[in-house]
Write the structure tokens for this entry.
Amino acid sequence: MAVCVTVIGKENSPKYISCLNPELDLQFQYKVHTSLDVVEEKLSSVGKTSGDVRELYLGLLYSTEEHKIFGYVTNTKIKFIIVVESSNTLLRDNEVRTMFRKLHTIYTDVVCNPFHIPGDPIISKNFDATVKSIMSGNA
Amino acid sequence: MAMDPFDFPPELCSRPLALIGLTGLDTLNNAVHRTIWDAFSSNRRQYRAPVQFKLLDPAHEFPPMKPKRTSYDWYIPKGILKRNWMNKHLNEMPAVVVIFYELDWDDPFWNEKSIECSSRVQSVRAALEGRSTRIAVILVQQTAPLPTGEDMLAAERAAALCTSCELNSKSLFVLPHGDHLQGYTHRLENAFYDLAQNYYHHESRNIKAHRDHLNKTTHQYLFVRHLFKIGFLNELKQDGHTALKNYTQAYNNVLELRLVDTNALEVKTVAGFINYKLCKLMFQLSLPRDAIAQFRRHTDLFKNRIGPKNLVFEHHAWMSKQFCVFGDIFDEAIRQGLPALQTQHPGFYYQQAAQHAADRKEACLELCKAVNVYPEPDPLIGMEHLEFYGQRAWRPGKLSAEPPDPDKEKLGIVALQYQEKHLVNHSMIIIGLLGSAITQFKTYHCPRMRRHLVVQMAEEYYSSRDYGKALTLLTHMLWDYRCEKWWRLITNILTLALNCAYLSASIHDYVVLSLEALGTSSQFPFDQKTRIFNNFMKVLKKTAPDPEPDVHEDEMKHARDLWITAVNAEPLEIAVDMSNITACVESKARFTQPQYKADQYVEIEVFIRSSCPHPLQFSRLSVTVNNPNYSSEFAVCESSSQEAHASGNPLLLFRCNEVRSYVCRFLPDVQDVGKEIQIGSILLHLGSDKERSAILRFNGTGAETATSDGMCPELQHFRQSPQNMPDFDNVRPLSTTEIISRDSKLKLDILHAFPALLGEWYPIRITLENEENHKITGVSANIVLQTSGDEPNIEQSTQLCEDLTAESMPVPVILSVGDLEKDSSTEKCFYLRAHRVGNRNIAVKVTYTMIIKRDSERVENSCVKEEMINVPVVKPFDITAKFFSLRFEPIAKTFAKEPFIVMPYVNCASPCPLIIEDSSVELSQQVCSVDAKLESQLQSLRLKNGETGAEAFCVSVSEPSDQPVALGIYTLKWKREGSNGLVTSSSVTMPTVRVESAPLYVEMILPAHGWVRTPMAVSYHIHNYTTRLLQLELSMEASDAFMFAGHKQLKLRILPESVHKMDYNLYPLLSGLVALPRLRLTISDEIDMPIRQPQLTELLDRSLPSHVFVMPQGKGNPVAIKVVS
């Protein structure tokens, strides 16, 4: 389903990046990195308008001919970015939301690990496996 | 560079304006004509009619008219759009021709001139034969016209002229060239515009009429052409909506065209034109969404219609152009006020254009590899003069369906490929487009997208072999990516940057980039790092490094040449600022304390960590320390022996991930006392001085990018660190420390007997005892009065001095003591005087210098000892004064010229006993003393706390007054008991008393006492203070205790301001305090008296004593007392 799943830290440094096709890793990293512009803009505009509970799912950040990039921001400003192929028309907004929610859950598990230092890149077999299953659409 | 076949022609891009031809104006020779022409043609502002004026000479020839086609049955079009058509209608074929002619209504030669005018009209009409161009005539007149309907001659002649010129009366205008030329031209312009609209409407209907003759099979091109023309004419007519409608239809007709290799270029060119017009109109008509949707549709439809396989680059060039031009229109629309979004702005289109330009380059590289010779004869000859847009020069006007000549076709393609390869600078096109995109992304808050594009731009510069520019861009971008720790991207950029640095033989950049590449943050594999490390070492050994992998062969040779000169080039020292890069060597430094005493050693701990995968040998480590004025450098762990230096100092050899700490100790400079010193930098020398050396300059705070990630430093404690090494991650840098003065061993005692009394010179004694180990010199005590918040003006009410005989000194007082030998002591005294009660805080700051030996060097050391004292100031006395009558009864008021008694009471408030030396009264002017001399009654009185002393003075006031009268000033001179000599004088103002006037005053002169049976003389003085005669009756009442001689009853007349004296001899009969015979006064004449009886009685009661003390007669002979006889 997804071709790239990333977790971005509070200050926009990458914490976890996984691509379906490792050869395109660099290309995806640039894409994800540039999509942070939109995330930042959305966050800053939301902060101004309302003080109430923010919707974590940011929706489609931007789309190119080949890919669509979706974003999600936790309350602690951890960003999840998922890249899907534009040709994949089966994927609805709801499915993307579900992927993000799953990702959030497993991310919470990682952070709860007492041996994980907050702010460090994520190294976890369990996390890896779940992300792989999200990408393949089996989760 | 050849013109890109896809560049949009100017006639397409310019704004269509109705063309108005002006003839009959001789602008060169006729000033009037010149001004008229200027009024029309210059100053074209926004609000003026959308027309364009063209000056035609009298013999102007219009484009020839093509023969009218009656039937399209056998007509097969040769192409879609003719190249000359748009230009013809924009610039050559006016919609209206205006004929200027100078003619006044009352011209004497009216007939002749009107004939000449009509002949001119006829000749213009002849030139426009067959066209429906509108003709208008303007009569340029000297005189201003009369209002319509009033000038009969004008109306009549105008009608005649219209008839002779065969002109509609609405096409005849008059232009008086006197005043208001602008106003006239403005109105004329609008009239022409109306005519022009009319013309274009007519023309477009003409074309529409042709359409009925067309059929779908052979005339598909014509459908497009006609619709395009109608659209264009409507644009000239400024009818955007109709134009848009027709262009849309034209576009849909283009889509229906069958696209084959031979006509692909033409169809796409025309489609691009129509799309351009569509999008531009949509933006103009405020339909930006439609414009974007149309463009998307356009690119979607055509992105796969590639055309001939050998000319794929042409397709990409076309695509690139489409995106670029759309970006331009979009940008223009934004400048006209269209709001854009972060996710929808021209930047994306420029980016896409750049992407297609890159595809074009790639395709060109692949397709044109083998093309190195331009074919003869030139198959592209005449490209510039083709009849139709988008056709091939070697087969112009051929219907697409015809099979092309394969040889010609092949040669043509080769020629195009040759041009593409040799004449097109792809990199510059890509870079230009990227530049446009970067500007846009910057505007729309997309810094990261911008960075990505800059990296792409750098890549393009790299491929165009401009390594310097590429390197500059990359190094800037590295910094940004580093901030956000995208190491994978950094590694990618580093690879390219290293290539650039190698190819341009830029040693400094090469060293910096290598250091960064060797660090942990870069994700190079180990063997790459090894290669980079070896190359780095080679550079330091003044040899050329091995070439980077995947560097082009041709470039390699050039780069080798560059390195040969570069390795020996000065300077041999390369300074590397490590604060901005995440390199393989990190360093942190800290002061061990936030403060150091001046005689303490300052310690700096330096931690260095190397994450280089190979051992790194440094040659020197030093720390620079900055203070506000200068900086000094301290070497750390300098190897002493020359031998060790040669082989490398083992203390400065770092294995991978090794952390070492060093301590640098130094004594602070005495001049730094009170200042802050800072770790300026840590300098690590890599390589030897003889060869090339790199000086790594750290700022000592470590690569503190970690904190920028919002990472709590506390969390670093959870990180594992090797047991046997300093915990680098948890070192908290402390880059500043304060040098404070050393603790003084001088003993400073301050003696004083507080509280201080108001007004006295209060002595404060300071005792200095030198308990230092050395002689101290230049000792001086600085006495400062501290101001406090509650009493801001405390300086003004306080004086300080060192010597009482001298003037008081301004604060701060400096007492210089001189030198003090070891263990000796001295004493100094200063005085304080306060003029207001309250607390005084006084700081005594003793400064001195001391020579001490430090490192076998004599260092002058200045020291400070400071002490604070608090001196409360209290009043010495409370002084009050009371008033009494002569009979010692307290009084609240007194009468003029009547004596009364003032008694000052002095109550001692000082805690220590005081001696009153003297007291005095200084009476004010209207008060005089009754006694000749006032003598103090309190002299030498000793008063303890709470005791009161009092004295009495008899005074009288000369004049009555409405205001209470001030009596004067009471001054006390006093000192503390036991103090020697310091007499203080304090003065207080005595209270005021009310003084009333009295017309009469009776004074009784009477001895202090009498003796029984011894006569005593008594006299009464009756003073008349008025200016009138007083008539009184006097009676003396009898008393049991006395017999008396004198008037018993008398009528008195007292002259104004005079005294009447009455003498009596009293003969006391009883002893003791006996009542005197009472004197009574009554007013004889009631009417005219300034005094009333009750007043008089009160006066007598007040001023006459009622009793006198009579002593019993003494034994022996009584002393004869003088008696009035």
Notes: Residues 2-136 of chain A form a domain with the Beta-Lactamase fold (CATH 3.30.450.70). Chain A is about 40% helix and 25% strand.
